[in-house]
Amino acid sequence: MSGTLVLVRHGQSDWNLKNLFTGWRDVDLTEQGHAEAKAAGATLAARGLKFDLAFTSVLQRAQKTCQHILDAVGQSDLETIRDQALNERDYGELSGLNKDDARQKWGEEQVHVWRRSYDIAPPGGESLKDTGARVWPYYLHDMQPHVLRGGTVLVAAHGNSLRALIMALDGLSKEEVVKLELGTGVPIVYRLNADSTVASKEVLTA
Protein backbone atom coordinates (compact mmCIF):
# COMPACT_ATOMS: atom_id res chain seq x y z
CA MET A 1 0.00 0.00 0.00
CA SER A 2 1.26 3.46 -0.83
CA GLY A 3 -0.36 6.63 0.52
CA THR A 4 -3.56 8.36 1.53
CA LEU A 5 -5.67 10.95 -0.30
CA VAL A 6 -8.39 12.80 1.63
CA LEU A 7 -10.99 14.75 -0.35
CA VAL A 8 -13.37 17.24 1.30
CA ARG A 9 -15.98 19.41 -0.37
CA HIS A 10 -16.10 22.84 1.28
CA GLY A 11 -18.72 23.56 3.93
CA GLN A 12 -22.00 25.23 3.05
CA SER A 13 -21.48 28.62 1.37
CA ASP A 14 -23.67 31.73 1.44
CA TRP A 15 -24.81 31.02 -2.11
CA ASN A 16 -25.48 27.32 -1.43
CA LEU A 17 -27.88 28.56 1.23
CA LYS A 18 -29.50 31.08 -1.16
CA ASN A 19 -29.83 28.47 -3.97
CA LEU A 20 -27.61 30.49 -6.34
CA PHE A 21 -25.23 29.20 -9.02
CA THR A 22 -21.81 30.00 -7.57
CA GLY A 23 -19.06 28.66 -9.80
CA TRP A 24 -15.98 30.90 -9.69
CA ARG A 25 -17.66 33.64 -7.65
CA ASP A 26 -15.69 33.99 -4.41
CA VAL A 27 -18.34 33.69 -1.71
CA ASP A 28 -17.80 32.92 1.96
CA LEU A 29 -18.93 30.05 4.16
CA THR A 30 -22.08 30.32 6.25
CA GLU A 31 -21.98 29.70 10.00
CA GLN A 32 -23.13 26.18 9.20
CA GLY A 33 -20.35 25.90 6.61
CA HIS A 34 -17.70 26.84 9.16
CA ALA A 35 -19.18 24.28 11.56
CA GLU A 36 -19.19 21.58 8.87
CA ALA A 37 -15.53 22.23 8.08
CA LYS A 38 -14.56 22.13 11.75
CA ALA A 39 -16.52 18.89 12.17
CA ALA A 40 -14.68 17.37 9.21
CA GLY A 41 -11.41 18.27 10.89
CA ALA A 42 -12.54 16.76 14.18
CA THR A 43 -13.52 13.54 12.39
CA LEU A 44 -10.12 13.31 10.72
CA ALA A 45 -8.33 14.16 13.98
CA ALA A 46 -10.24 11.37 15.74
CA ARG A 47 -8.84 8.98 13.10
CA GLY A 48 -5.34 10.17 13.92
CA LEU A 49 -4.76 11.48 10.42
CA LYS A 50 -1.83 13.83 9.84
CA PHE A 51 -1.06 15.40 6.48
CA ASP A 52 2.16 15.95 4.58
CA LEU A 53 0.70 18.51 2.17
CA ALA A 54 -2.63 20.22 1.45
CA PHE A 55 -4.18 21.43 -1.79
CA THR A 56 -7.11 23.77 -2.28
CA SER A 57 -8.58 26.13 -4.87
CA VAL A 58 -8.13 29.90 -5.13
CA LEU A 59 -11.66 30.43 -3.72
CA GLN A 60 -12.08 31.35 -0.05
CA ARG A 61 -14.81 28.83 0.77
CA ALA A 62 -12.43 25.98 -0.02
CA GLN A 63 -9.42 27.69 1.58
CA LYS A 64 -11.27 28.33 4.83
CA THR A 65 -12.52 24.74 4.90
CA CYS A 66 -8.95 23.56 4.40
CA GLN A 67 -7.68 25.77 7.23
CA HIS A 68 -10.39 24.62 9.66
CA ILE A 69 -9.37 21.01 8.99
CA LEU A 70 -5.67 21.73 9.46
CA ASP A 71 -6.41 23.62 12.68
CA ALA A 72 -8.40 20.65 13.99
CA VAL A 73 -5.63 18.13 13.30
CA GLY A 74 -3.00 20.41 14.86
CA GLN A 75 -1.28 21.34 11.60
CA SER A 76 -2.29 24.99 11.17
CA ASP A 77 0.97 25.89 9.42
CA LEU A 78 1.08 22.97 6.98
CA GLU A 79 2.24 23.82 3.46
CA THR A 80 -0.90 24.46 1.41
CA ILE A 81 -0.90 24.84 -2.37
CA ARG A 82 -3.69 26.91 -3.92
CA ASP A 83 -4.46 26.48 -7.60
CA GLN A 84 -7.41 27.44 -9.82
CA ALA A 85 -7.20 23.97 -11.41
CA LEU A 86 -9.21 22.88 -8.35
CA ASN A 87 -11.80 25.66 -8.64
CA GLU A 88 -15.48 24.88 -8.90
CA ARG A 89 -16.95 24.45 -12.35
CA ASP A 90 -17.45 27.83 -14.05
CA TYR A 91 -21.19 28.29 -14.54
CA GLY A 92 -20.73 31.19 -16.99
CA GLU A 93 -23.92 33.19 -17.48
CA LEU A 94 -25.68 31.18 -14.77
CA SER A 95 -23.26 32.44 -12.09
CA GLY A 96 -25.05 34.49 -9.45
CA LEU A 97 -28.52 33.51 -10.64
CA ASN A 98 -31.10 31.85 -8.44
CA LYS A 99 -31.69 28.36 -9.78
CA ASP A 100 -35.44 28.94 -9.94
CA ASP A 101 -34.92 32.21 -11.89
CA ALA A 102 -32.63 30.38 -14.31
CA ARG A 103 -35.37 27.80 -14.91
CA GLN A 104 -37.83 30.59 -15.69
CA LYS A 105 -35.40 32.21 -18.15
CA TRP A 106 -34.17 29.13 -20.04
CA GLY A 107 -36.70 26.44 -19.09
CA GLU A 108 -36.44 23.65 -16.56
CA GLU A 109 -35.28 21.06 -19.08
CA GLN A 110 -32.43 23.20 -20.44
CA VAL A 111 -31.17 24.14 -16.97
CA HIS A 112 -31.33 20.48 -15.94
CA VAL A 113 -29.19 19.57 -18.96
CA TRP A 114 -26.60 22.20 -18.06
CA ARG A 115 -26.50 21.08 -14.43
CA ARG A 116 -26.57 17.34 -14.90
CA SER A 117 -25.10 16.48 -18.30
CA TYR A 118 -21.45 15.49 -18.56
CA ASP A 119 -20.34 17.44 -21.61
CA ILE A 120 -22.88 20.23 -22.28
CA ALA A 121 -21.74 23.57 -20.87
CA PRO A 122 -23.95 26.52 -19.89
CA PRO A 123 -23.43 29.73 -21.92
CA GLY A 124 -19.92 31.07 -21.27
CA GLY A 125 -19.18 28.32 -18.75
CA GLU A 126 -17.75 24.83 -18.31
CA SER A 127 -19.23 21.36 -18.49
CA LEU A 128 -18.16 18.70 -16.00
CA LYS A 129 -15.94 17.31 -18.77
CA ASP A 130 -14.29 20.74 -19.12
CA THR A 131 -13.72 20.86 -15.37
CA GLY A 132 -12.13 17.43 -15.51
CA ALA A 133 -9.83 18.58 -18.30
CA ARG A 134 -8.06 20.87 -15.81
CA VAL A 135 -8.46 18.71 -12.68
CA TRP A 136 -7.08 15.43 -14.07
CA PRO A 137 -3.70 16.68 -15.33
CA TYR A 138 -3.22 18.67 -12.13
CA TYR A 139 -3.91 15.59 -10.04
CA LEU A 140 -1.55 13.40 -12.04
CA HIS A 141 1.27 15.94 -12.15
CA ASP A 142 1.01 17.77 -8.82
CA MET A 143 -0.90 15.65 -6.29
CA GLN A 144 -0.63 11.95 -7.09
CA PRO A 145 3.20 11.79 -6.88
CA HIS A 146 3.10 12.81 -3.20
CA VAL A 147 0.56 10.05 -2.44
CA LEU A 148 2.51 7.41 -4.36
CA ARG A 149 5.61 8.28 -2.33
CA GLY A 150 3.64 7.26 0.76
CA GLY A 151 2.38 10.69 1.75
CA THR A 152 -0.97 11.74 3.17
CA VAL A 153 -2.52 14.54 1.13
CA LEU A 154 -5.56 16.72 1.90
CA VAL A 155 -7.62 18.22 -0.94
CA ALA A 156 -10.30 20.75 0.07
CA ALA A 157 -12.17 21.78 -3.05
CA HIS A 158 -15.62 21.92 -4.67
CA GLY A 159 -18.48 19.68 -5.67
CA ASN A 160 -17.67 19.50 -9.38
CA SER A 161 -13.87 19.56 -9.23
CA LEU A 162 -14.05 16.68 -6.75
CA ARG A 163 -16.66 14.82 -8.80
CA ALA A 164 -14.27 14.95 -11.75
CA LEU A 165 -11.44 13.62 -9.59
CA ILE A 166 -13.62 10.87 -8.10
CA MET A 167 -14.71 9.92 -11.62
CA ALA A 168 -11.09 9.11 -12.42
CA LEU A 169 -10.32 7.41 -9.10
CA ASP A 170 -13.46 5.26 -9.08
CA GLY A 171 -13.57 4.62 -12.83
CA LEU A 172 -17.07 6.07 -13.18
CA SER A 173 -18.80 6.40 -16.53
CA LYS A 174 -20.15 9.76 -17.66
CA GLU A 175 -23.64 8.47 -16.82
CA GLU A 176 -22.56 7.45 -13.31
CA VAL A 177 -20.65 10.63 -12.44
CA VAL A 178 -23.57 12.98 -13.13
CA LYS A 179 -25.56 11.13 -10.46
CA LEU A 180 -22.77 11.44 -7.88
CA GLU A 181 -23.67 13.72 -4.97
CA LEU A 182 -21.08 14.97 -2.47
CA GLY A 183 -22.10 16.26 0.94
CA THR A 184 -20.56 19.51 2.20
CA GLY A 185 -17.81 18.97 4.75
CA VAL A 186 -17.78 15.16 4.42
CA PRO A 187 -14.26 13.65 4.20
CA ILE A 188 -13.62 10.86 1.69
CA VAL A 189 -10.49 8.85 2.48
CA TYR A 190 -8.74 6.96 -0.31
CA ARG A 191 -5.83 4.59 0.25
CA LEU A 192 -3.89 4.14 -2.95
CA ASN A 193 -1.71 1.25 -4.05
CA ALA A 194 1.81 1.89 -5.31
CA ASP A 195 0.54 1.49 -8.89
CA SER A 196 -1.97 4.36 -8.29
CA THR A 197 -5.04 2.10 -8.15
CA VAL A 198 -7.47 2.48 -5.25
CA ALA A 199 -6.94 0.04 -2.39
CA SER A 200 -9.85 1.33 -0.31
CA LYS A 201 -12.32 4.17 -0.04
CA GLU A 202 -14.20 5.35 3.04
CA VAL A 203 -16.76 8.14 3.34
CA LEU A 204 -16.60 9.57 6.88
CA THR A 205 -20.15 10.77 7.45
CA ALA A 206 -20.84 12.30 10.86
UniProtKB/TrEMBL annotation:
One of its GO terms (molecular function) is phosphoglycerate mutase activity. PROSITE patterns: PG_MUTASE. SUPFAM superfamilies: Phosphoglycerate mutase-like. The record marks 158 as: Transition state stabilizer. One of its GO terms (biological process) is glycolytic process. The active site is at 10 (tele-phosphohistidine intermediate), 88 (proton donor/acceptor). Homodimer. Belongs to the phosphoglycerate mutase family. BPG-dependent PGAM subfamily. This is 2,3-bisphosphoglycerate-dependent phosphoglycerate mutase.
